[in-house]
Amino acid sequence: MSKLKFIDARNFLAPRFPLAEIVRHLDSGGVIIHPTETVYGFGGILDRDVTNKITCLKRRTLGKPMLLLVSDRKSIEALRWTPEALMLADAFWPGPLTIVLSDTDADYPVSVRNGEGGVAVRVSSHPLVHTLMNELAGPMVSTSANISGDRPLLDTTDIRKRKYFSLEQDLMVLNMGPLPHSLPSTVIDCSRKTVEILREGAIPFREIERILPGVTVNVHT
Prior knowledge:
The chain has six helices and eleven strands. By secondary structure, it is of the alpha/beta class. It has a single domain (3-219), classed as DHBP synthase. It has an eleven-stranded mixed sheet with strand order 1-8-2-3-7-4-6-5-9-10-11, sandwiched between helices. Strand 2 (31-35) and strand 3 (40-45) form a beta hairpin. The N and C termini lie far apart (40 Å).
């Protein structure tokens, strides 16, 4: 049975909020469930053992890359930034836009790289995640906190109701209460010659076009 530790994160700016404990848990290879601007997600440091834990928790097939949450654009300068990617990041970060960038030198592990060498990255606008990212030494892998194929988790009370987790590991749950229903992040691929929207979500296609005038933007079907 998993060891679930719930932390009330609704007042995370309070002096007694255990931010240092959460950071130590992450740095030691622990996994958290954290809120985002859309749904709750699994999170952990960029480490193979950590991504394996999250894959087991999701009951997910290997080979599907995870997202990287970062503190700012400068923390992922090793990825190839196209002019379009720069314009999109300047317009929508922090926010619900995930940008896929090319890892031309294969600096990142396969757990976050897709088949074409792209890495999905985002600067979250959620204030708790923003605070965590400023404390961590590097990026945090993240993926929705649900069994693969199941509905997204919007309320941490569902964790026990659904009886999701049977992996024997410490799992720290940062409870912000029920999250409002919202669209997922928009995912846009800037790792190739043609810009492509892989998923239209919270940021609509027309807003992407507005930021990239004169640029052909394909929509994945």
